[in-house]
Amino acid sequence: MGTALISGSLKVMHAFDFKKGKLHAEEVAVDRLASEFGTPLYVYSEATLLGHYRGLTGALAEVDATVAYAVKANSNLAVLGTLARAGSAFDIVSGGELFRVVQAGGEAARCTFAGVGKTEEEIGFALDQGIYAFVAESEAELRFIDQVAARRKVRAPVAVRVNPDVDAGTHHKITTGTYENKFGIAFEEIEELYGRAAKLKHLRLRGVHMHIGSQITAVGPFRAALKKMVPLVSRLRDRFGLEFFDIGGGLGIVYDPALASGKESWWEGRSRRPLTPEDYAKAVVPLVRPLGMKILIEPGRFIAGNAGILVARVLYVKKTARKNFVIVDAAMNDLIRPAFYEAYHEIVPVGRAGPRRTVKTDVVGPVCESGDVFCKDRLLPELRTGDLIAFLSAGAYGFTMASNYNTRPRPAEVLVSGKKVLLARRRESLQDLVRGEATA
Ligand SMILES: *Cc1c(COP(=O)(O)O)cnc(C)c1O
């Protein structure tokens, strides 16, 4: 265990740890949660969520910084409510996410709304709710927001997302800041675009935005993008009276503790130790402070990633001439990151029932896809039918990317705080799955 769960700041407590041979979420034994709520089960730790949120706000105290949690990482109402009460703002990418923030008790006035394909309905809803700013990703969208605002006789607060053309050095499916990506508007075109947008009567140019990618574990890409952006942002601030600079999210976490300890080499140029809020602030603050603007950051994974685990039960063990398959009751529909991004999740047995030898294991789910594999040939303690295992660092892009593929109900979610357990979302029933369908 150890560093994998510290995730960033060394000041953040271990929320998932072994006590007397049993994995605990804060003060609660995970096997107890599994018997009470069934498996597969997402378990979140409130202390870890808040620890990361506070670690970041604390590290950025030297600038007028707002942490806008990226809702898409984990949008459970209990998670959003916890962060809202701690003072978090929110980064949303759909009308649905705005609805969730409001339902959870968050303020629309503290939401920024990004995304390349906002619909008229979503723009209208966001205007009616009074969001802080739209982050427009094309000129066509800016003109459309202006029209929707005109019909309502209001001015829409906007920022434009700048694509700084900096490679974040992350997985190709989560790189967003190069000209190969659909996101934002090319750096060279921004100033003229703001000039044209300033003439649209129902827009209020409020800020400027960038977000270069996700799971960035070194400060280099952030620094490179900011060095390029700051002179532009300074000119835009002077010409158009902008109030904020949103520098995006993308702060990475360590999924594999072997990498964090430097036992194995990873790929070139990547940091092997966790990115801490202090590392990030040290790189970012000197570059943005001279602007004297309100700074927004939009971390999703960094706040929620290590604040959650997915618990599963072993159904069968199937040994073949070549392989040792452990078939569990969680699958790619519950946690798609390994199948989608070739992502690594640390897997630990929930109970340490006596000494067991370690064996090369493929942990797989029941879904009818060859891609439904959580790990291949990984050395794990020998697992048996009925054992519980936990996939660590599953709090971000876990449940929010879950689907009902193979007509599998999505897992329950629980939020633990000290000894307290909240059923944050009950397990879906089969009836839930067919609600809204018609028979022909
Ligand atoms: C997804 C997203 C984020 C959050 O990314 P993380 O890697 O989870 O920090 C922030 N901003 C925007 C615009 C996004 O689309």
Give a description of the structure.
It is a single chain. The protein has 440 residues and is an alpha/beta fold. It folds into two domains: 3-44 and 306-434, Lyase, Ornithine Decarboxylase, Chain A, domain 1; 114-299, Alanine racemase (TIM Barrel), CATH 3.20.20. It has helices spanning 3-6, 30-37, 46-59, 77-85, 95-103, 120-129, 139-152, 190-197, 220-240, 257-260, 277-288, 301-304, 337-341, 430-434, and strands at 16-19, 22-25, 28-29, 41-45, 65-70, 89-92, 111-113, 133-136, 156-163, 185-186, 203-209, 244-246, 294-297, 308-319, 324-328, 347-349, 358-364, 373-381, 388-391, 412-417, 420-425. Strands 4, 14, 15, 16, 17, 18, 19, 20 and 21 form a nine-stranded mixed beta sheet that branches. An eight-stranded parallel β-barrel has the order 5-6-7-8-9-11-12-13, surrounded by six helices. A three-stranded antiparallel beta sheet has the order 1-2-3. Helix 9 (220-240) runs parallel beside helix 11. Residues 1-13 and 263-271 have low confidence and may be disordered. The chain binds pyridoxal-5'-phosphate (PLP). Pyridoxal-5'-phosphate binds next to helix 12. Residues 70, 72-73, 91, 93, 114, 211, 214, 248-251, 298-302, 396 line the site of pyridoxal-5'-phosphate.
